[in-house]
Amino acid sequence: MSGESNNAVAVPQFQDVLGHPKPLWMLFMTEFWERFCFYGMRWMLTLYVVAQFFGGDASGEATANSTYGAYLALVYATSILGGFAADRILGYQRAVMLGAIVIAVGLFMLMLPSEVMFRVALSVIVVGNGLFKPNISSMVGKLYSIDDNRRDRGFTIFYMGINAGAFFAPLITGYVAAKFGYIDLNSAALKAEGFRAGFVTAGIGMLVSLVWFAVGRKQLQGVGAAPAGKEGFGNIALVLLGVAVMVPVMYFMLSHAPWLTGILSGMFVLCCILLITEGLKDGNVQRDRVFALLILFVFNVLFWMFFEQAGSSFNFLAEKIVNREMFGGEFQVGWFQSVNPAAIVIFAPIITIAWTFLDRLGKEPSIPRKFALGLMGNAFGFLVLIYALKNLVDPSNNMIPFWTLALCYVFQTLGELCLSPIGLSMVTKLAPARMVGATMGAWFLSISIGNNLAGQLAAIISGDSGMTVPSALSGFNFSFILLISAGVLLFLIAPLVNKLMHGIK
Fold first, then answer.
1. What does the alpha-carbon distance between residue 75 and residue 123 come to, in Å, rounded to a whole number?
2. Strands 329-330 and 325-326: what pairing?
3. Residues in contact with 421: Cβ distance below 8 Å, sequence separation at least 6, in sequence order
4. Chain centroid, CA 375 distance in Å
5. 3-state class of 78 per DSSP?
6. Given pLDDT bands bounded at 50, 70 and 90, which one contains residue 424?
7. 502's torsion region: left (phi>0), alpha (psi -120 to 50) or beta?
8. What angle do CA 222, 223, 226 make, to 5 degrees?
9. How far apart are the first and last CA of the chain?
10. Cβ 444 vs Cβ 271: under 8 Å
11. DSSP character at residue 250
């Protein structure tokens, strides 16, 4: 069942605030605090694993990176299950509230200094995120009728809430972690204590999100309510039972990241077979469009495999090889994670204007060429780091300048803006009419596979002895060569992919 059919409720007549339905602003702040929670704890995960469970020994970096990649992969993969639970059983409102509660429980469980409980806590967070993340976005769409020309602008405002939360979270949790011991680089125990304080801060943010939505959801006037006949508490109990079942499954996946790659890949291949089968039923045009989709899915996996070095190998680079002393103080490792959302806010309008200008000239790049530019932007970020590691290492401290990592994040963000925003739109345009949901699932699975591979790559870069200048240079050289090669290849075969798309732009 699609999200559009979850309710028989027509779009209510909402009071407008700043030109949009009043509930949009409630959902904006709910998402702001949830993203504050997600990005506030995300940057700490790899660093915490090394400090808490390996006593600060660099040999723990590979395990930390692998766990991080698996965690991100599962966050995306469980969104499919959470969307199904909301469509069929809970409704969006109750799915969001239940997800928020589960996430908060997991975050506070991170306080327990046990490796087993750490993985259990991450598993709980993963399952909760699956209930929360896809369903709050669905409610935004239900505030507008299909032909309401404010709909796209409403999603843009909501997207700014995501980036605002992502911007402030690392700044605040990074400050808290430093205050409680993280800056004491000579004591792994104190570092871990600082990170736990950061996790608590993120957990408080999740509670704010929960309370904000619980108080404000009456504004929704039935939008996102439980499906007809599913209003009882028995359905909540059923989903809670599902949560209890899924947590040990997620725990197993987190503990066996290479197995996770195979499982996700198998799910992805199954989705592809179903799409091809459906495309063949609908004739040659739809068959070709499915093949175009699958080609772009493969390149999407590559993009996220390297983009998501942000919370893994780039974190250890920032901690060990980047000179962060500035203005008489120290730029915290987590603060680098705020560069991406800041760059999105700055450059998204500029890129939108550029596409509009090129469209008027009849020269706007096609979807495949925008994907190719995304891969190349990602590659140029690695090129900056390669240049720094080859030419700018300070012999007195074996570190590279601060600005090089910041500039890398900016290039990667430019790549993201060329690829990510058009991805969901592309899926809805090219998917077989009866399989839009399954196609969207395949899209998220491609991101999930890329995230898991990102952790595996970061583990290889760190190796047994941890991040060093030579290991970073070797790993980033590989990353640049593969990304730039993929970008050039896609740019060259774009006319073929466009032909397969049969006029879809």
1. 9
2. antiparallel
3. 348
4. 17
5. helix
6. low
7. left
8. 70
9. 27
10. no
11. H
Question: In terms of residues, how long is the chain?
Answer: 505
Better-predicted residue by pLDDT, 283 or 381: 381
| Both tokens assigned to 276 | 């091809």
The answer to whether 263 and 413 have CB atoms below 8 angstroms apart is no
8 Å CB contact between 439 and 431: yes
Q: Is the pLDDT of residue 111 over 80?
A: yes
User: pLDDT digits over 327-350, tens only?
Assistant: 777 888 889 999 999 999 899 889
Two domains, one topology: 16-255 and 256-505: yes
**SS (HEC) of 180-206:** HHHCCCCCHHHHHHHHHHHHHHHHHHH
Kindly list the distances between the CA atom of residue 257 and the CA atoms of 82, 125, 245, 267, 306, in Å, as whole numbers in the listed order. Answer: 22, 17, 19, 15, 17
Report domain 256-505's class: mainly alpha
User: What residue segments make up the domains of the chain, in order of their start?
Assistant: 16-255, 256-505
Q: Which helix (H) or strand (E) holds 20?
A: strand 20-21
Query: Which of 231 and 164 is assigned the larger pLDDT?
Result: 164
Is there a contact between 95 and 134 (Cβ–Cβ < 8 Å)?
Answer: no
Looking at the domain covering 16-255, what would its CATH class be?
mainly alpha
**Helix-then-strand count for the chain, H and E:** 16, 4
Confidence of residue 261 (pLDDT cuts 50, 70, 90): confident
> Are the CB atoms for 131 and 116 separated by under 8 Å?
no
Sequence-separated (6 or more) residues with CB below 8 Å from residue 137 = 158
pLDDT value of position 267? 85
d(CA 306, CA 6): 36
DSSP string covering 134-179: HHHHHHHHTTS-TT-TTHHHHHHHHHHHHHHHHHHHHHHHHHHHII
Structure tokens that stand for 323 in this block: 């000179």
Give the separation between CA 223 and CA 96, rounded to whole angstroms. Answer: 13
